[in-house]
Amino acid sequence: MARTTKEQALKTRGKIIETAIEVFYTRGVNATTLEQIASAAGLTRGAIYWNFRNKLDLVSAVHEHFHLSILNTIQEEMQQQNTPPLQRMRNTWAKFLHDISTNSMYQKVMTIFMLRCDYAGDMAALLTKQLARKAEARALLATCFQAALDKGDLKPIYTADQLVQSHMCYMHGILYDYLAFNKIDQLQRDSQRLIDFHFNSLPYTDK
Predict the structure, then answer these.
(1) How many independent structural domains does the chain possess?
(2) Nearest-CA neighbor of 110 among 166, 13, 177, 54?
(3) The Cα angle at residue 82 between residues 80 and 87, in degrees rounded to 5
(4) How far is CA 31 from CA 19, 35, 125, 186, in A?
(5) Please, what's the largest Cα pairwise distance for the chain?
(6) Are residues 27 and 79 in the same domain?
(7) Which of 12, 148, 179, 185 is close enough to 153 for a disulfide, judged by CB 3.0 to 4.6 Å?
């Protein structure tokens, strides 16, 4: 009986998160109330507050749920030790951009946090959490760049951290451009060209 209750609770929590994504995407985070999410989910306000303390808590859960999927993708590719470091990074971004271009839920979540969330006031705490999570991804990428530098694949004119910064800014710009200008349906077609452009610009050695 207890197991059934726990499963029902997890199912309800998942339903709230999925509904919140739809409502946040449609209305924007700041214009959305928990009452509106409860109504859209066919639940009571009490069910929302049983699972989440406030809207910030719910938005954080949406981000956490999405971030873990991204981090798992990065970790999965980075663990392929038999693959050269820079190829691992190519594979990571190819998979990530494919997932974004083919998964409507991913597209909506990215749109919410890049275009439909004001990080002022209470939401400033969410930005702090996002930056902490991004730091985890950056650390994984820095390890890969450092491995490429150590192997002599890249000229040591930039540090691993500088390479990561350039890398992240480029990929962030791609996502923003395709989402903001509603070109996400073109991303799968363009992704290989975009990845090649970035990686071909790296300072390779002549070996």
Answers:
(1) 2
(2) 177
(3) 70
(4) 15, 12, 18, 29
(5) 66
(6) no
(7) 148
Radius of gyration (C-alpha) of the chain in whole angstroms:
20
Long-range contacts of 7-11 (CB under 8 A, 24+ apart): 9/51
Q: What is the mean pLDDT of residues 50-76?
A: 87
Q: Tokens at residue 188, please?
A: 């799968």
Q: Residue 99: which residues within 8 A CB-CB, separation 6 or more?
A: 73, 106
C-beta separation of 142 from 160 below 8 A:
yes
Distance, C-alpha 178 to centroid of its chain: 15
Give the tens place of pLDDT for each residue, 143-195: 999 999 999 999 999 999 999 999 999 999 999 999 999 999 999 999 999 99
Q: 154 pairs with which residues across the strands?
A: 204
The reply to whether 1 and 70 lie within a common domain is no
Range of the domain at 22: 1-52
40-49, 59-68, 78-87, 92-101: which is most confident: 40-49
Confidence of residue 4 (pLDDT cuts 50, 70, 90): low
On whether the CB atoms of residues 175 and 202 are closer than 8 A, the answer is no
Q: What is the pLDDT at residue 1?
A: 42
The per-residue pLDDT for range 65-75, each reduced to its tens digit, is 888 777 777 77
